[in-house]
């Protein structure tokens, strides 16, 4: 497993149940990891506990193969059950409780929408990264609050790893990095693809944005 510091920079791939239906989940995620994704978030809004557990376990094994980290969205108990990391939104439970449950080595991230104040609160509650969004038109979350690059500049003063999310593509991602994003979290811009080969090519190209 990679260290926290190593993982908190680069491409952050997020799964989508519709885009990755029909047996696409594992091959498409493997393609993203092979292309260099450092974090993979399992984002599944269903209540099918058994399927969620088996998919999360399979993704965790894949992440370990590629030295990446698996982040579970919303569900601290599933993360604890399989020894994975966690992302919490503002209504998904307490960051401090999650830290107690998962321990100091777990990566725990927090949604901060477009508000610096939420980021300060998340850091005070031991979040490892702060996530701002949405930056562009998002097919996944069209109604999310809009963030901008001024916010990224202001967030630099917090000296904490920053994730940008929302409508990010290969064409619009690099400007967010220039303004201070340490990670780009992507669903459609990565996984809306006809083949895993395309996903891997995109993941490589996203990863290259961080070294250019
Ligand atoms: C990296 C990252 N940033 C933000 C979110 C959004 O979390 P939330 O507001 O809880 O919304 P849902 O994703 O749960 O619908 C995220 N998942 N990941
Ligand atoms: C899950 C999520 N959270 C957002 C936020 O602004 O907090 S935007 C978003 C959707 C990201 O998917 P896509 O890359 O397809 O736009
Ligand atoms: Mg959530």
Briefly summarize what is shown.
It contains 10 helices and 8 strands.
Please write out the topology.
Blueprint: H1 4-7, E1 10-14, H2 25-34, E2 39-42, H3 49-65, E3 69-73, H4 76-82, E4 85-88, H5 95-102, E5 108-111, H6 116-124, E6 129-133, H7 149-155, E7 162-165, H8 173-178, E8 183-186, H9 188-191, H10 196-209
Parallel strand pairs: 1-2, 1-8, 2-3, 3-4, 4-5, 5-6, 6-7, 7-8
Helix pairs in contact: 2-3, 2-10
H/E series, N to C? Answer: HEHEHEHEHEHEHEHEHH
- Cα Rg: 16 Å
Shape annotation? globular
Number of domains: 1
Helix share bin: 40-55%
Q: Which class in CATH terms?
A: Alpha Beta
Specify the CATH homologous superfamily: Aldolase class I
Name given to the CATH architecture: Alpha-Beta Barrel
Number of alpha- plus pi-helical segments: 10
Largest sheet composition: 8 strands, parallel, barrel
What portion of residues belong to β-strands?
Answer: 15-25%
Unreliable residue stretches: none
What's the pLDDT, averaged over the residues?
97
* Bound small molecules, deduplicated: the ligand Cc1ncc(COP(=O)(O)OP(=O)(O)O)c(N)n1, the ligand Cc1nc(C(=O)O)sc1CCOP(=O)(O)O, magnesium ion
Might you state the CATH topology name? TIM Barrel
DSSP strand count: 8
């Amino acid at each position: 497993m990679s260290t926290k510091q190593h993982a908190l920079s680069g491409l952050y791939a997020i799964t989508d149940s519709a885009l990755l239906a029909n047996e696409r989940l594992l091959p498409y995620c493997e393609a993203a990891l092979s292309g260099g994704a450092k974090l993979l978030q399992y984002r599944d809004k269903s209540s099918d506990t058994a399927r969620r557990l088996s998919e999360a376990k399979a993704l965790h094994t894949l992440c370990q193969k590629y030295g990446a980290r698996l982040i579970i969205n919303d569900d601290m108990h599933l993360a604890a059950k399989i020894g994975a990391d966690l992302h919490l939104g503002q209504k998904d439970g307490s960051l401090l409780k999650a830290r107690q449950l998962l321990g100091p080595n777990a990566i725990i991230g927090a949604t901060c929408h477009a508000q610096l104040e939420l980021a300060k609160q998340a850091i005070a509650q031991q979040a490892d990264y702060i996530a701002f969004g949405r930056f562009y038109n998002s097919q996944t979350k069209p109604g999310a609050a809009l963030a901008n690059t001024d916010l990224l500049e202001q967030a630099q003063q917090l000296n904490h790893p920053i994730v940008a999310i929302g409508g990010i593509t290969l064409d619009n991602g690099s400007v967010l990095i220039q303004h201070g994003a340490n990670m780009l979290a992507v669903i459609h811009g990565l996984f809306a693809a006809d083949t895993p080969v395309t996903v891997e090519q995109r993941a490589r190209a996203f990863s290259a944005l961080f070294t250019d």
